[in-house]
Amino acid sequence: MTDSPGAASQAVSPGLPVASARRLILPLALAQFICSFAGSNMNVMINDISEDLDTTVKGVQTVITLFLLIMAVLMIPCSKLTDRWGRKRCFTLGLTLYGIGALISAISPNLGVLILGNSVFEGVGTALLIPPVYILATLWFTDLTSRAWAFGVISGLGGIGAAAGPLIGGVITTGISWRAAFVFQALVVATIILLSRRLEDPLAPDPTRPFDAIGAILSAIGMFCIVFGILQAGSNNGLFAILLVVGALFLLAFFLYIRARERAGKEALLSTGLFKNRTCNLALVTQNIQWLLLLGTSFVVSVYLQEVRGYSAIKTGVIFTAATVGILASSLAAERLAKRFPQRTLIVAGFIVTLTGVVLLLGLVPAWDSIAAFVPGLLLLGLGLGTMLTPSVNVVQSSFPEALQGEISGLSRSISNLGSSFGTAIAGTILVSVVATGNAAYAWAMAALAVIGLIGLVAALLLPAKSEPQTS
């Protein structure tokens, strides 16, 4: 690889040797895998962590949600830093912070230290390393088919990480300890750093590129208040309302600020022009809801199995094998599907299959005590999500030229991780609320996910049959 964009584009052509393509994509895909794994593997450790650290389900839910939330609020600012510091440097720095956070989590004596390691260090590390994953894949793979393959591998391993997180976490927790699951993450991160040593950035960093610190602060506070406010629903409705209003006001201030900055001819944290592409806007909605459904369902089913049915960590994890198999099967077919069907068709079909899975989980589980009640729903959930994760990312990234890949990648990952945060916060808050318990709480939480899934389906149906031209 060379430092010039043109040479990089020529090097990564549709005829790129398979070995070279795999060498480029493997560390990126593994990075997405471990970050998605971190968002769901703790779901099966709820009882173990609660007992060991003398906390509650709500406490563990807060750790998980804060991890996802910190990722979301920092993803856009960190994507802008890739232009100043370079994509490779941000990738390596993010991995290093993530590894440190995993080791801190492994030795945490209380909930506060676990939040520092898992939520803060791993969250900040993920926000730094994920934007380069998608920017580099977009720059290296230049045509629709090869890019679909690249995004298929990355998104597929991300989906597998989220779906297999409960299984792997359950095996490690039961066989060794919940702390060993964080050591496992640190080892994977060390492997990724070794694999990525020879990767080179196709674009040279620009240290003179301005950074909009005020915009970063306004957007971060706004998103944080909204998600943290949702966590307070049911237990402190007064604080819930206050935080939602404050969050909305900060986001409004953020929009007005970046618009004024653009009109003054200055570079803003996020270009308002990104939202002028209708196709991209709708695809971002589908991305948000896809991850909301995946992480929301994972949390709800995990808590239900452990708290209501008394299942162990490994037994809970094994049940999620059906979702893992579904995502793996559909992700492996991503390249073939991209050749045969339009992106919109795949996204619509994915939502229909996913919603069918949610409905089966809603109907079969409360009525049937057998483990088999979870299999059809989780399998369809995995198949549906695996089918649409890749085309949604491809539609968003392909809507903009190389010059805007940093911004759109950060926005895309922020929207996706915000969906993950909403999934855990909304569904989890309903599940652990004092209003309903047992089967009733589970049913309410799954019903809420089904309604949100319908919104995603509507957004997918509104996608045009042909993508809009790239927004410059």
Protein architecture, described:
This protein has 472 residues and is mostly helical. The chain is 79% helix and 0% strand. It has helices at residues 5-11, 18-40, 46-53, 57-85, 87-106, 111-140, 144-175, 178-195, 213-232, 237-263, 278-308, 313-319, 321-332, 334-340, 343-367, 375-397, 405-431, 438-462. Helix 3 packs across helix 4 (57-85). The protein is globular, with a radius of gyration of 21 Å.
Keyphrases for this structure?
single chain, 472 residues, mainly alpha, 18 helices, 79% helix, disordered N terminus
Short description:
Helix content is 79%, strand content 0%. The chain has 18 helices and no strands.
Compute the number of strand runs.
Answer: 0
Largest sheet: none
Helix residue percentage: over 70%
Q: Uncertain spans, ≥5 residues at pLDDT below 50?
A: 1-15
Q: What is the approximate shape? A: globular
**C-alpha termini separation:** 26 Å
Number of helices: 18
Order of helices and strands: HHHHHHHHHHHHHHHHHH
Proportion of residues in β-strands: under 5%
Which structural category do the helix and sheet elements fall into? mainly alpha
Structural Rg: 21 Å
How much is the average pLDDT? 82
Chart the SSEs and their pairings.
Elements lengths: L4 H7 L6 H23 L5 H8 L3 H29 L1 H20 L4 H30 L3 H32 L2 H18 L17 H20 L4 H27 L14 H31 L4 H7 L1 H12 L1 H7 L2 H25 L7 H23 L7 H27 L6 H25 L10
